[in-house]
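Exercise 3.2. Students should predict the tertiary structure of the chain below and write it as structure tokens, then compare their answer with the key that follows.

Predict this chain's 3D structure.
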Amino acid sequence: MICGIPIPLSGRFAMVASSVTRQPPPPIFDQLAYLPDPFARHTGSVPEHLPVQARTTHEDDFWHALRFLASYEGSTATFNAYRRELERLLQWSWLVQEKSIRDLKREDIEQFIRFCQEPPRAWIGTKNCARFTGPDDERRTHPDWRPFVVSVSKVQARAGRSPDPSSYASSQASIKSLFAILSSFFNFLIQEEAVTSNPVALIRQKSKYLVSGQRREVRRLSNLQWDFVLETAEHLADEYPDRHERTLFVMQCLYAMYLRISELVADERHIPTMSDFRRDSDNNWWFEVVGKGNKARSVSVSDAMLKALKRYRGHLGLTPLPTPGERTPLIPTLGGRKAVTSTRHIRAIVQQCFDQAVERMRLKGLSDESHELQAATVHWLRHTGISEDVKQRPVDHVRDDAGHASSLTTDRYIDAERRERHASARHKPMKADS
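Answer key:
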């Protein structure tokens, strides 16, 4: 039985499938910097830590997957997402099914989807960790790494609750992403003439894995919570300017320009600098972003955001407004001139501000609001900014500033209709004569 679904297994295969799911599989792909050249294949160049299948009968699988992943080297986030799903597919195909990925059919992919929905306990970890550790010439697998990871919320963690592998559940978003990535990979294999058809595309009834019509909740701060967060950032900046003028500016960027956390840090795609703020011929200011999917967009800069920029630049000892070609990092490290390169760094800045806002709300007797704020993440600031703007700006303007591919995504932030719908239902009687 795999994932609670009876699958006919017999003889040696049944014993192998049972044994391999009782122990965690080894990771396959390291970070890009440590991977072999995908176009310089030669005998014995497959990493020795891999299962023997990868180094013998299924060596072609490894190289096809490696070449596919190498095409996403321009975006760390995309590479990591595709690596995760391909690694799971290879581990399952090699170890559980004892098949090459080139032999997988539609029914195999359906089994794999079910496997991902309910993976073996031994394949589930309780913390995110690197696949490999050590210097270049001594890379070794991390003993705590697992293909699947279960976690708890910030609030649960603070209450002392630990992650439990038995509570693992795949989200609708993760299953949808899995379909998209696998389909893209098999289309690549078709182009490489490794397979003749895409088994993912042959799955006609994806609806049995995906719930349609489900409205994703927009997680945002209430107006009161945002007021406390912003005031907290302002108080910190006034009291400890050397450390927290940057905090204030980060919070303002995330809210007023709906930036994603990755759009504030330097990576291989782009290094955000002050010159990304640009003035057009009409004297209007824009912020140029390289965002999700390596897509560039221009975000309109409000007068309030421009005022925030001037304050921050004044603290840094710069002219009030940037000049074309200015290379000053948008978010520098404290006491340095290098750009922040870690999203974890930005999360820590935001979390500290959230924590202090929570404490201020508690002191004011706002226990319910402060408890909800404890669950907030950085991305809530983007959601909050968009949700407020769709109340007063044209949806297509907000869509373009937010970088949404469709107005349907932006429409999720319009909650007036739901508010009115609930108001009309609030006083419905339970009895007809009430």
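Discussion points: The longest helix spans residues 76-96. The CA atoms of residues 105 and 199 lie 5 Å apart.
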